[in-house]
Amino acid sequence: MILIIRISGMIGIPRNIQETLFRMRLRRKYSAILLEDNNFNRKLLKRVRDYIAYGTIKKEILEKLIVLRGKSIEKGKSVDAKKIVDEIEKKSLEKQGLKPFFRLHPPRRGIESKKHFGIGKGVLGDNKEKINELVERML
């Protein structure tokens, strides 16, 4: 699974990129979604890579994310994170009773810069396994 976090705000974004982010349910700064890793999603990520950070998430970090930031669709209903992580490949978050996005806290100790990951110390673009450290700081 790929975790995508919107890093940039809403000001000064081209209309087509803004529409893509909106359809991906990344409507606010520091919101996150999960997508499966396939060619179509990779092309989509390539299009919006200047505004998001993404990478492969570990199962234990995903479980922690669901426990701390996962919200049930039905108000007041509790979530079983282990069960959701085990069935995430078969069923989407919505079918399991969770909202399909996560609202995260701005990263503690801040973002070093809004440059691309491979160029210096930025967070934008493909963070590969480093996305897990970023999510830890945002929980």
How would you sum up this structure, described in words?
The chain is of the alpha+beta class and 139 residues long. It has a single domain, classed as Ribosomal Protein L30, Chain: A, CATH 3.30.1390.20. The chain has five helices and five strands, in the order βαβαβααββα. It has a five-stranded mixed sheet with strand order 4-2-1-3-5, sandwiched between helices. Helix 3 crosses helix 4. The longest helix is centred in the middle third of the chain and has 11 residues. The model has no long low-confidence stretch (mean pLDDT 86).
Summarize the structure.
By secondary structure, this protein is α+β, with helices and mostly antiparallel strands. It contains five helices and five strands; from the N terminus they run E-H-E-H-E-H-H-E-E-H. The chain has a five-stranded mixed β-sheet, with helices on both faces.
Regions with pLDDT < 50 over 5+ consecutive residues?
Answer: none
Cα-based radius of gyration, to the nearest Å:
15 Å
Q: Architecture in CATH?
A: 2-Layer Sandwich
Mean pLDDT: 86
What's the CATH C level? Alpha Beta
Strand content: 5-15%
Per the principal axes of the C-alpha atoms, what is the gross shape? globular
Distance between the termini: 18 Å
Instruction: Please identify the structural class as seen in this structure.
Output: alpha+beta
CATH superfamily: Ribosomal protein L30/L7
Adjacency order of strands in the biggest sheet: 4-2-1-3-5
How many beta strands in the DSSP annotation? 5
Task: Detail the topology: elements first, then pairings.
Blueprint: E1 2-6, H1 15-23, E2 31-35, H2 39-47, E3 52-56, H3 59-69, H4 81-87, E4 102-103, E5 125-126, H5 131-138
Parallel strand pairs: 3-5
Antiparallel strand pairs: 1-2, 1-3, 2-4
Helix pairs in contact: 3-4
